[in-house]
From TrEMBL:
Keywords: Hydrolase, Signal
Enzyme Commission number(s): 3.-.-.-
Intracellular or extracellular location(s): Secreted
Membrane-crossing residue ranges in chain numbering: none
Protein name: Polysaccharide deacetylase family protein
One Pfam short name: Polysacc_deac_1
InterPro entries linked: Glyco_hydro/deAcase_b/a-brl, NODB_dom, Polysacch_Deacetylase
Domain NodB homology: 66-272
SUPFAM superfamilies named in the record: Glycoside hydrolase/deacetylase
Gene Ontology terms for molecular function: hydrolase activity
Main localization, broad class: secreted
Gene3D superfamilies: Glycoside hydrolase/deacetylase (3.20.20.370)
Amino acid sequence: MTAPVTVPVLMYHAVAARPADATYGLSVHPDRFAAQLELLAAEGFTTITVGELAAIRRGEATAPERPVALTFDDGYADFHREALPRLSAAGATGTLFVTTGWLDDAGPETAGHPLDRMLSWSQVAECDAAGIEVGAHSHSHAQLDQLPDAALRDELARPRRLLAERLGHEVPHLAYPYGYSSARVRRAVADAGYRLAASVGNFAAGPGADGYALPRLTVARDTGLDTFGRVVRGEHHARIYWKERTLTAGYLVVRRGRSALSRSALAGRARS
């Protein structure tokens, strides 16, 4: 069986009743998250991981009747406390993209500025053992498309190494911090050994979608259950996400300009 025409890949962040102010808009209340899982089950959806989706896209696995991939970015502590028990109770799975330098006990590897309380390494291992796929979300949550090449390579290689050492297996999938990437970043991701990388996009992933810019659909604090149902059914994505898509398109132009100026400045210093 070939991969389905489209697969909704949902992007979550915090799942918390009282998240930090910095994560509030992209958080989901635990009760609403439970209701979303109930809707998926009632409508016959089967949750899959990003790794399973990648295998389906490569023709190495058979797709379930109505697949949906759940992804969770950053690695907030509430994933272990709120999301994991609800996923387990529903017989559901997902992919947790971890910012390794943000972890609560990152120690000498600490990097970046966490927005809320983060998972510990032992909790990441518990999620992995419970059947949640763990992926990388860079090391410090940097804007990867703005980094020089050496820093970019480190942001990609370090979390992959740390996660493999701690979990005892390879971690071949990545989600871009902020959803930002570029052709240069995607080449570096492939060179670092990742087999798939998730962006945002806010449209469903068709079989021809770039495996190093896998589009995801944002689930936010104000995503009502009716809207959530339309999102997973593939209804009216252009209408639901028109604001997000417009902002993304405009900001992409700005980011490309910044990146070009940054590289030009670095080249100028190298010649001086």
